[in-house]
Structure formats: C-alpha cells, structure tokens
Amino acid sequence: MSRIEEALKKFTELKQGSDAVPANQDVRSGTQGTKVSLPAQLVKSDSNRLLDVKPIRVDNLLLATALNEKTEVVEEYDKLRSAINALTKGDNFLNTILVTSTASEEGKSMTSLNLAISLAKEQDHTVLLVDTDLRRPSVHKYLDLDPEIGLVHCLRDNVPIEDALIKTGVGKLVILPAGESIRDPLDMLSSNRMKEIVQELKERYPERYVIFDTPPAKPFADASVLAGIVDSTLFVVREGKANKDDVLKTLEEFKDLNLLGVVYNDAHMFIKKPQDYYYY
Q1: Nearest CA among 5, 107, 119, 9 for reference residue 65
Q2: Is the pTM of this model over 0.90?
Q3: pLDDT per residue as tens digits for the range 69-96
Q4: What b-and-e string marks burial along 240-257, b requiring 16 or more CB atoms within 10 Å of the CB?
Q5: Domains and CATH numbers, the chain
C-alpha cells in the first residue's frame, strides 16, 4: 500500500466520527485525481521527524537564539521574527527569503542563522537555511559542522537535495551547506538548475521558511541574481561599517525585488553596558 493510500485510509477512519473537516487540514490529490483533505498531523509528519534527532551542540556565543537564554539580543530577534511573519504571510506565503548586505562583515550570516533558529523554534514552521555564499561559506563553521556535500554538488553534480540536508535538532532547523567554496559561482547561481532548486525548496513543504545567506551585494552580483528568483529580500546594515552612499545605492538596486526591510545591526545607541556589546 502506497503512502498516499495509507494516508487516505487513515483519513477515512478519522473522519467517520466527524461531520466536517477541520479548517487547518491540508489539501492533497488522491489516486483518482480527487482532492481530499488530509489531517494536519499527517501533513506535518515529516516536519515532526526533524525533532527526532539529537540536537547539535551550539557553543558559539554569536548564535544567541540557540542558547536558550532570554537576553536583550534574543528579544530583538524575536521582534524580527514577528516582523517577518507579518510581512510574509497573506494570500501568498512569501517563504523564500534572501539575506544580504552592502559590504562584508556586516553580520548577514549571523542574522540569517539567528533568524532561522528563532523561526525554527516556533511550533508552526520548519526552516531550511541555505548557504549560497559559495565564495566564503560560513554557516557550517558557526554550527561546527563538517559537511562532505552541499549546494555546490547539487548544482554541479546533480546530487539530490535530500542527500545534502543536515538536520540540526535545533528546533525544526535544517541546513543546506555550501559544500565547498567556488571562486566564481555566478554562472552556477544564475543557472536553470538553481532556479529549479529554489522552486523545489519553496514548494516541497508549504509551511517551511527557506532562508538564503548570500555574499555582500556591492562587490558581487550573486545576491541580485538570487533576489530575482526568491520571494523577498532582507537587508543587513551594520552601524559604522558600510559607506552611507553605498548603502543607499545598493538599496535602490533592490527596491524592486520585494525588499522586506533593513536590519540595523550593531547599533551602539541601544547598548547599556560594555559587557552587553553584541552584533548579529
């Protein structure tokens, strides 16, 4: 018996004692092309398996949202998570989000990671964080992972995506690492294969957020290319790092690419004590 047939049988058994289908049930196609509503617990069974893994140990202090301490920094990420939820949900779920910045060292990877972890700890969402900074991949380093394959192999060697995914056990967070660094990945990122991967990641799990960490936008075209094939863009600006004119010029270039907003990072005006210094 196929998984679809098993799901239909399970649904029939559950429905016998109910006159209506609950509103939160998903809609899938049956074997005869008839649309049926499957129980939410069946639809989310794959998501729940993400919790059935031993959590990786996160020791990096910059990953504040993974440390289970309610600090001021975590509160700020909670606010960012709430803003993202509000901005991306509507008639169409804008679940693929690119994170970039003007220059390097503005904290875009830290923002990507902490936002992904914060979202992954919510009950309603799984989160996939994709390291598309193929020039200087860093997501795996912050999580102390040593992946053998990743996005590069999916693009170049047609390795199935599921073979490269890493379940972290940190909430419902999954990582698609870069796999290896590439000196000039622009052709790879602008390929039809990349577009297919983004579409597959968007549609495979309808409730999943997919976050793409990218290189900075001013020196490289990678982020602008990817912004054209994802739903929305989140921009990171670190206080005192990037030139103001460069920031404004780069934001102007992204204004038509569904720019969600700007994360103002390392804002010293909010720091109360020296020991509270933190940037993300």
Answers
A1: 119
A2: no
A3: 888 899 999 999 999 999 999 889 999 9
A4: ebbeeeebeebbeebeeb
A5: 3-43 (no CATH), 48-276 (3.40.50.300)
